[in-house]
């Protein structure tokens, strides 16, 4: 038996050696840890430290976590001002979202179990009927609730969960539409019941975060495609095409000239996509028409008024942008030819690697901005710069886009400036994104007549028609726009103080992914606005950060189970369904890979979990690199950067090493 003195000496030596080793060999992002949970349900969440959130949200319910041991599934909700009288966990335990109760407010859920306060119920209905069978009441050692913490322990055997099972989890605070985890309209996060043997250690890898804006596709700045000399990184360009440019000769569409003038080949070689707008009336400082001459002459020959030539004397259109020609949008001939032109554009660019990422439904009004303002001249003239058409006419133009592009959503998506009924209810079941051409200007944003107010509440338009809302369109489609007021407005919107504060406020509310063509891509690197530009660019669109990867330290079996936690720190989801892949590599070569079920279109702001099982049965013994990649379907190569270090040469991201 050791004496007390010998024990104290040994302790001192061990502590000293540990301190020396930590100094020489700092803690790495790889952590080997026994996976058996050691959670005590007592209202103290300190024992959850190190366990990543599977969902986050603003409001009262802010963090959702899950863990388990050999007996229980543990659930934690953290927040502020949580209800102490009503809260409910919703669990899909059979892995099938089409079976079970369809809980309101999320995506398809398929709930088998409901924990309402301390009472556990099993669903006995079909789809939407409210039929539940009481199962049990959790004891005080299984359920604790305060206004800031809710903990629960549910027996795995009761839920029918075993090793390899998955469970989708949601929490609803006091039956609120807003205070829930995950947020409204998101999919329930999935948690996997992994093997937890006492001696079975797991690798937990916490990749360092890269605190920089990323030059990723479908977000950021979208300057004019006419120039190829922009100091700032960007992955989008804006192309405004007039009808006269597109179809100079009747029935002949000059895509070669348009692509040459806008440097399509150059942009494609650099992975830059196009935001396209089709324009029938673009005011300048000289008399001109933006519809083709043959179209004008045909309308005259048919006895139809071709439109209105205007020269604004009110000054409302801005110096140098006051002269042009407003077509007669009610002409049935013009409508018929417009349909053919839109169909030609859609057909020409309907390829998996299409250069066009977004099409702004334009066509109508000055600059295709859905207005012919100013409507009243200096002497009281009506329709002073042309007549804007009523819904019965304008809807026909919008429908041309919907019909032509509805089947192309995997590579090209439609956006519209004004909230109209067709934006959410149309014959193709298509939901349109939206764009704000005066982003950053407060009155134009959420005053009574503002763009944001109209999208959320509906509005009376400029010609006295009541238009519906298109509230929260950003939950399923992209939001875009451009800075207001030319260079002056853009600089004001990016200047620290009230201008930039307003820009950030509008970013949080309307969730834009990109801004252009009035955007700061032409400003020099390191300019005085660079810091604010970087802040805005990071927050716009999506910004994916890998927080944690967990997998067995060693495995001689046939599969490698991997769980990866990714946080989206942007305001918007990724617009297209690009595959997320987990890979094993040896010497830089991919030797095993598994496409996951992750859908980036549902990865809104907050935490998301990627799970996968890579087949390893044919791999020889050895040590391999584990990696994650978001693949561009047109190249089958990594196409999106994570905000982490350890980026591999081809664009995938290392998540650690694994030994078979």
From TrEMBL:
- Alphabetical list of InterPro entries matching this protein: DUF4832, GH
Which ranges carry the DUF4832 domain? 432-640
| SUPFAM superfamilies in the cross-refs | (Trans)glycosidases (SSF51445), CBD9-like (SSF49344)
The name of this protein is: S-layer protein
């Amino acid at each position: 038996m050791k004496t007390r003195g010998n024990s104290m000496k040994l302790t001192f030596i061990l502590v000293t050696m540990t301190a020396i080793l930590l100094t020489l060999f700092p803690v790495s992002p790889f952590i080997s840890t026994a996976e058996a949970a050691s959670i005590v349900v007592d209202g103290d969440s300190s024992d959850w430290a190190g366990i990543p959130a599977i969902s986050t949200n603003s409001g009262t319910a802010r963090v959702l976590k899950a863990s388990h041991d050999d007996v229980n599934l543990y659930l934690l909700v953290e927040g502020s001002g949580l209800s102490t009288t009503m809260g409910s966990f919703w669990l899909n335990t059979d892995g099938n979202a089409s079976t079970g109760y369809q809980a309101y407010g999320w995506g398809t859920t398929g709930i088998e179990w409901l924990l309402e306060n301390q009472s556990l119920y099993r669903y006995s209905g079909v789809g939407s009927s409210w039929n539940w069978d009481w199962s049990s009441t959790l004891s005080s050692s299984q359920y604790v609730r305060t206004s800031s913490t809710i903990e629960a322990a549910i027996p795995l055997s009761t839920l029918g969960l075993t090793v390899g099972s998955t469970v989708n989890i949601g929490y609803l605070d006091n039956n609120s539409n807003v205070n829930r985890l995950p947020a409204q309209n998101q999919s329930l996060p999935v948690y996997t019941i992994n093997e937890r043997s006492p001696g079975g250690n797991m690798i937990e890898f916490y990749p360092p975060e890269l605190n920089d804006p990323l030059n990723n596709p479908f977000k950021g700045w979208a300057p004019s495609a006419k120039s190829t000399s922009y100091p700032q990184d960007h992955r989008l360009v804006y192309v405004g095409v007039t009808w006269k440019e597109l179809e100079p000769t009747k029935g002949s569409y000059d895509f070669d000239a348009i692509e040459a003038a806008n440097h399509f080949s150059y942009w494609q070689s650099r992975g830059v996509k196009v935001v396209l707008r089709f324009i029938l009336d673009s005011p300048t400082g000289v008399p001109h028409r933006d519809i083709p001459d043959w179209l004008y002459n045909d309308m005259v020959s048919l006895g139809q008024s071709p439109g209105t030539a205007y020269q604004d004397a009110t000054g409302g259109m801005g110096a140098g942008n006051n002269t042009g020609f407003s077509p007669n949008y009610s002409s049935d001939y013009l409508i018929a030819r417009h349909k053919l032109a839109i169909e030609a554009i859609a057909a020409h660019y309907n390829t998996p690697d299409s250069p066009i990422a977004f099409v702004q439904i334009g066509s109508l009004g000055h600059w295709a901005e859905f207005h012919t303002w100013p409507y009243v001249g200096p002497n009281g003239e009506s329709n002073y710069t042309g007549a804007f058409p009523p819904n019965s006419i304008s809807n026909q133009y919008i429908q041309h886009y919907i019909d032509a592009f509805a089947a192309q959503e995997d590579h090209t998506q439609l956006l519209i400036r004004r909230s109209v009924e067709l934006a959410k209810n149309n014959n193709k079941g298509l939901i349109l994104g939206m764009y704000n051409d005066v982003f950053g200007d407060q009155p134009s944003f959420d005053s009574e007549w503002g763009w944001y107010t109209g999208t959320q509440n509906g509005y009376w338009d400029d010609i006295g028609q009541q238009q519906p809302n298109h509230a929260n369109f950003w939950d399923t489609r992209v939001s875009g726009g451009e800075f207001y007021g030319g260079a002056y407005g853009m600089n004001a919107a990016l200047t620290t103080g009230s201008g930039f504060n307003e820009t950030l406020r509008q970013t949080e509310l309307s969730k834009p992914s990109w801004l252009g063509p009035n955007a700061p891509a032409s400003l020099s690197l390191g300019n005085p606005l660079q810091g604010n530009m970087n802040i805005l660019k990071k927050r716009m669109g999506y910004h994916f950060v890998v927080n944690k990867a967990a997998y067995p330290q060693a495995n001689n079996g046939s599969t490698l189970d991997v769980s990866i936690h990714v946080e989206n720190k942007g305001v918007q989801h990724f617009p297209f369904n690009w595959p997320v892949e987990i890979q094993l590599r040896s010497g830089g070569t991919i030797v095993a890979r598994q496409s996951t079920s992750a859908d980036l279109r549902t990865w809104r702001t907050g935490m998301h979990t990627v799970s996968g099982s890579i087949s390893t049965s044919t791999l020889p013994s050895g040590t391999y690199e584990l990696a994650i990649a978001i693949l561009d379907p047109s190249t089958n190569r990594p196409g999106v950067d994570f905000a982490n270090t350890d980026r591999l040469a081809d664009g995938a991201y290392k998540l650690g090493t694994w030994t078979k």
